[in-house]
Amino acid sequence: MPSPRYWREVPSRFRLEAARCHACDKVSFPARRICPACRGTEFEKIKLTREGRVVTSTVLYVAPNEFAMETPYAVAIVETPEGARLMAQLVDCEPADVKPGLSVALEFRLIRQEGHGGILCYGHKAVPAGV
Amino acid sequence: MRDVAIVGVGMTRFGELWETSLRDLFVQAASEALHSARADHLDAVFIGNMSAGQFVGQEHLGPLLVDHLGMAGVAAGRVESACASGGLALRTAFVEVASGMSDLVMAAGVEKMTDSIDVTEVLATASDQELEAYHGITFPGLYAMIARAHMEKHGTTEEDLSWVSVKNHRHGALNPKAQFPAEVTLEDVMRSSMVADPLRLLHCSPVSDGAAAVLLCPLDQAKKYTDRPVRIRASGLATGSMALADRKDIAFLDSVQLSAQRAYKMAGLTPADMHLAEVHDCFAIAEICCIEALGLVACGKGNAAARTGETALGGRIPVNTSGGLKSKGHPVGATGIAQAIELCEQLRGEAGARQVKGARIGLAQNMGGSGASSVVHIFEGI
């Protein structure tokens, strides 16, 4: 991934910035220019709470090359209290213990290294709440 | 709009075709389609292909492939909608003929996947790069999340998933073009290695090479090319949320339902009118979700259909008589066209041991990504 592209995505990846639509209250993560629910274009910038619950998940045994050393690992869709949903790896627990409804905290972590230069790419991973 | 018919078909065997290049795959299928219709010209060619640029480093397929067909000069281009590229090529050709723009048009699909060392990564480009692939998810992983959501909501089990594979391999064993024309047992499936929990290797379609092509012309000109035209009654195309996380119900494929509703409306038909269906079973859970969204079974009831034999050959609504993507193979850009060819063979009564008795009307459903795009075509034998 070229570095400008990485830099451009910092607000959502580093700060969990989302947008709440003025017209219909729908929260989009990351922020969008047009609301997918009502096509409104006026938003309030908000930060997502760093917690949520698992909606669905899987455990990967066959991974892309960059993640091959990490298998098996869990990936989940997490819903935050604002109603935003995001995909994240679920770590610091047995992958098999990840089930729908599990309460999690979102923590800032290294996600991957990319390209020949090995750019360090950060973002959020989920961990079981209270661990 | 003019009525449109398919008057010629051709396809390669699907599989690991080490000796055949992308261009040769296309030429083989396209030549067979032309030959089957005794056609010596084309007005246009639309080629469904997901990612030749990444799989074999080749873009600009339109001119390359018609040149190799010995037809440089013919209007041609590639269309893309990930794994639904073939279905989109068929729709594009259908519209070209229906509109009166052209009279004899080829819809083809081709994918050369086994030359690539990064197939999983290339396929993952059909997911949302920034929100999904970034976190190390794969396509088996996305469909595994759909499977778990379906299990949670509808009580679907690993055994239900496995019956889909058993059924489709039973069908595919009768298809000489299939990549894996062999039956598998329930135990084979349930003991195969885990790929993305709960999806095991034998719940997943394979990596394949292959090409397929069909010829379309106005229905009132069809007799020039064949005694057995197959009419395309309808074409429905729809999109849905790209990222799985953005869908209200992760266990339901909105785009599939929408594309089907559009097709049923255009044809003036209902799901109950279908005698058979080819659906996009890239993973076992996908067939379960697709037959629900297509209205072939009630929502939440797709899990039992393969086990009870409802969707097997001889059942109420046979699904994937070709073996589906699972057994026949899934060269992604070619899949949508290969589905149309299975429908043609069935509706012409030429499917041999796979024949659905009395089949006159059927549908093909082809989708892209984790269901962000879907194309449905309804066919009628004449």
Count the E strands of chain A.
Answer: 8
The profile of the biggest β sheet of chain B is:
9 strands, mixed
Q: Which structural class is indicated by helix and strand composition of chain B? A: alpha/beta
Strand percentage of chain A lies at 35-45%
The counted number of beta strands of chain B is 11
CATH class of the largest domain in chain B: Alpha Beta
Q: How does the overall form of chain B come out from the CA principal axes?
A: globular
The average pLDDT value of chain B, as a whole number, equals: 98
Radius of gyration of chain A: 16 Å
List its traits.
heterodimer, A: 131 residues, mainly beta, 5-stranded antiparallel β-sheet, 3-stranded antiparallel β-sheet, B: 382 residues, alpha/beta, Peroxisomal Thiolase, Chain A, domain 1, 2 domains, two-stranded antiparallel sheet, globular
Helices, strands, pairings?
The complex is a heterodimer of chains A (131) and B (382).
Chain A: H1 3-8, H2 10-15, E1 17-21, E2 27-28, E3 43-47, E4 51-60, E5 73-79, E6 85-90, E7 103-114, E8 119-128
Antiparallel strand pairs in A: 1-2, 1-3, 4-5, 4-7, 5-6, 7-8
Chain B: E1 4-11, H1 22-36, E2 44-48, H2 52-55, H3 61-68, E3 75-79, H4 85-98, E4 105-112, H5 119-124, H6 139-154, H7 158-172, H8 186-191, E5 194-197, E6 199-200, E7 209-218, E8 230-239, H9 254-267, E9 276-278, H10 284-293, H11 305-308, H12 324-328, H13 332-347, E10 361-368, E11 373-381
Parallel strand pairs in B: 2-3, 2-4, 9-10
Antiparallel strand pairs in B: 1-7, 1-8, 4-7, 5-6, 8-11, 10-11
Helix pairs in contact in B: 1-3, 4-13, 7-10
How would you describe this structure to a colleague?
The complex is a heterodimer of chains A (131) and B (382). Chain A is mainly beta and 131 residues long. Chain A contains two helices and eight strands, in the order ααββββββββ. In chain A, the strands form two sheets. In chain A, strands 6-5-4-7-8 form a five-stranded antiparallel sheet. A three-stranded antiparallel sheet of chain A has the order 2-1-3. In chain A, a hairpin with a 5-residue loop joins β5 and β6. The longest helix of chain A has 6 residues. Chain A is globular. The model of chain B has no long low-confidence stretch (mean pLDDT 98). Chain B starts with a strand and ends with a strand. Chain B folds into two domains: 139 residues, Thiolase/Chalcone synthase (Peroxisomal Thiolase, Chain A, domain 1), CATH 3.40.47; 234 residues, Peroxisomal Thiolase, Chain A, domain 1, CATH 3.40.47. At the A-B interface, β4, β5 and β6 of A face α5, α6 and β5 of B. β4 of chain A pairs antiparallel with β5 of chain B.
